[in-house]
Amino acid sequence: MALKFYNTLTRKKEEFKPIKKGQVGIYSCGPTIYDFPHIGNYRAYVSGDVLKRYLIYKGFKVKHIMNLTDVDDKTIRNSKKEGIPLKKFTEKYEKAFFEDIKKLNIMPADLYPKATDHIKEMLGMIKKLVDKGLAYKGDDGSVYYKVSAFKEYGKLANLQKGALKKGASCRVQADEYAKEDADDFALWKGWTEEDGEVFWDSEFGKGRPGWHIECSAMSTKYLGKHFDIHTGGIDLVFPHHQNEIAQSEGSLNEKFVNYWIHNEWLLVNGQKMSKSLGNFFTLRDVLSKGYSPIAVRYLLLSTHYRQQLNFTFEGVEAAANSIQRLQDLIVKINDAKGEGSDVSGKIKKAEADFEKAMDDDLSISDALAAVFSLVKDVNILADKGKLSNKEAKAVIAFLRKINGVIAVIDFTEEKIPDELMKLIAKREEFRSKKMFADADRIREELLKKGVQLDDTKEGVKWKKLK
Ligand code: AMP
Ligand code: ZN
């Protein structure tokens, strides 16, 4: 089956055809580094990560670019509040972002370009737009995009001309200055007192770039004028991505992006998780309650990216349990010695079902259901002592393969300290002498130390509790 994605531009699931055979260019709108991101933000990055990992699984060579917004109203406002120069201020949150994505097993992008390092490129694009009559300088020293001059405007967001929802995003309101038409948006913002030390000199006067232009300038610089996939949260469709199209296609005269892929909200009690509503948890908040970042990753990826997902701590616990089932199976079958059954057919089916689901616009629930159906069957066979060593290895190889996409299983061989290994041996000794009370005492002691014992047909097995 062909790989298909839902394209916001056409509002259809479409077969994915890369511009260059075997290669994919992806641009993702990254974080504004003014605070710790909340886990709603991370839903966007985990969704993008699953998309990217599945393309790699399918054999594509992926080039992935993610911007860091290090100058805008929020970064300037908060750096002033803290009395720290902008660059030093944003560096702190950049570091926090990289720490978080590492914990969430998000594959690093090839490059994280920053807005402040690309002022020249942005000004170059703005100049082209002005020269073509698509932008003009306002009375306030800002440069605005003349939306009415770009005939395709509104296509991505499915808007009728003249029916733009004003103030649909707080970011639009932040751009409301002296402009010819309320729909026009700022490409370059003339300096005001609030900007303080933050400004660049340009032929349009001193100022700073608008938010939308950074993504047009940096995506096309690193991926070319026309590239395959652009990702972001659903709130970015309008105006941000609509404006990116107007800027890029308006200045470069070429189709900008083939597939626009947007993730839905992470909710809290039915409302979007957001800084402004105050209903958010940062990753640090969740981890400080003792949850593992991989459980958060699993929770964020296990609902289809185009469906809303309500965040609860029970949800994180359920996610941790699902991961534990996978880890437990690996420990259980590691040294299977049965005579074998029909597992290879079951693996083939699980693999085919996993791929069929993922090919269909990354239908993760069905893909995971295929994995857990195999896990259930293999557990039964292992409990009956029927699984052969070869079969067990094939199951583990399959899990390794799909883990390239979900990235939640830990295959590193677990070790426990020697003193605990000695306790396990001691317990075995008690058991062989039928001194069961002493054996049970050791079992309890180990459990307190986070090691659980299982007496199986193949002897005692231990596992670390997560
Ligand atoms: P921002 O730093 O506000 O530009 O947001 C970074 C990314 O997170 C964007 O792609 C947003 O669309 C996305 N995002 C923000 N809040 C949520 C949420 N509650 N659920 C899912 N994605 C979100
Ligand atoms: Zn962007």
Q: What can you see in these coordinates?
A:
This protein has 466 residues and is α/β, with parallel strands linked by helices. The chain has three domains: 4-263, 3-Layer(aba) Sandwich (Rossmann fold), CATH 3.40.50; 283-406, Isoleucyl-tRNA Synthetase, Domain 1; 418-464. Helices cover 46% and strands 15% of the residues. The protein is built from 15 helices and 15 strands. It has helices spanning 39-57, 73-82, 86-103, 119-131, 170-174, 211-223, 237-252, 283-288, 293-301, 313-333, 343-359, 364-383, 389-406, 418-432, 436-448, and strands spanning 4-7, 12-15, 23-28, 61-66, 135-137, 143-145, 185-190, 207-209, 227-233, 257-263, 266-268, 271-272, 309-310, 451-456, 459-464. A four-stranded parallel beta sheet has the order 4-3-9-10, with helices on both faces. Strand 11 and strand 12 form a beta hairpin. The longest helix is centred in the last third of the chain and has 21 residues, at 313-333. The protein starts with a strand and ends with a strand. Adenosine monophosphate binds at residues 29, 31-32, 40-41, 43-44, 232-233, 235-236, 263, 265-266, 272-274.
